[in-house]
Amino acid sequence: MIRAYKFLLRPTxxxxxxxxxxxxxxxxxxxxxxxxxxxxxxxxxRTSVRYGMQSAQLKEIRAFDPERQGRWSFxxxxxxxxxxxxxxQAFFRRVKSGETxxxxxxxxxxxxxxxxxxRDGDGCRWDSTPHDPVTRxxxxxxxxxxxxxxxxxxxxxxxxxxxxxxxxxxxxLTAELDRPEPLPAxxxxxxxxxGIANFLADSNGVFVPNPRHGRRAAEKLQSAQQALxxxxxxxxxxxxxxxxxxxxxxxxLHGKVRRRRLDxxxxxxxxxxxxxxxxxxxxxxxRNMSRTPAPKPDPDRSGTFLPNGATAKAGxxxxxxxxxxxxxxxxxxxxxxxxxxxxxxVDPRNTSRTCPHCGHTAKENRPTQEKFHxxxxxxxxxxxTVAATNVLRAGLVRRNADPA
Length: 404
Known about the structure:
Blueprint: E1 2-10, H1 13-42, H2 51-56, H3 58-64, H4 74-97, E2 114-117, E3 124-126, E4 135-139, E5 143-148, E6 156-165, E7 168-176, E8 189-194, E9 198-202, E10 207-209, H5 213-216, H6 218-229, H7 241-275, E11 278-282, H8 286-289, E12 296-297, E13 305-306, H9 310-323, H10 325-339, E14 342-346, E15 371-373, E16 380-382, H11 383-401
Parallel strand pairs: 8-11, 11-14
Antiparallel strand pairs: 1-5, 1-7, 2-6, 3-4, 4-5, 6-7, 8-9, 9-10, 12-13, 15-16
């Protein structure tokens, strides 16, 4: 089982400067490799450049520019080239499937924030001394950087990544762990329904309120973004001190919202995993749910469009993204795996329109957002609780139908 651990780095001033230079040089390598692929494709011969060809050029690049490229880890530079190769493969996959292609773009220094080391001990070394009060990670070209290790890292460290978030630096480890002992069985099963009015409703009638972190910080974000918009767009090196502080203020507020959303998702998922053996949830296609509606051309007037509800849908999309369903489900699955719990995803169709008593399915069963009233048997309940109950039943059916 693979788990990730993220710790705050505490570099010295000189080490922080070296870390920034490492990001800058890897960004330069990424952009140069992308330019080479673009030039090869535009050439009349339509030459195809792949990862193996670019990786073979690294020795020459390092020898030609030892100050900027030769001092960094060879394997980390290969990881940067693999990162570009994955982006190119994803581009061609989207083209083949008919999706919006989204050709890989050149990265500015501020948009390239991670350097990967594919193997511990190759260009980096995680200090795994258990009783040493000071933990360090050694990075080639940087030195031994202090780490604020707030919890132990069990298992064997596989990969190491260095990431910049604003003015802070972090190290992200992936470790291979033995499967832990499962939590004691509770004998409880539950179905959950994710929503906007309530973040979560379960089949037992319990509701978890939606914290709406993005909406709560919207006023401060709006003020900070308005202050930033007063500055003309320019390169990072040409920014004034006030401009840099305005950029950092916006990034700081967005980071605070993201951390609060993550904390809420971790706490909610942990409560579910501790209380229930089996958790069923809807298999939501969040990307499709938050998609912008297609325009409706007016057949009678050329060049004009009919109302398509884009304004209302934009508000709904903002609320869906603010809730962070995808992050929560990812965390829930990870915690359930570590605790030996079972998580089942079921088809979400008609879960809030089907009566749990008589099984009658109709759109009229849900007259309002919160109220459920079956037109066949008269059963009345909260619509989210009804949906969670149907999700649980569908999950148990699927669990019993799947082979052991």
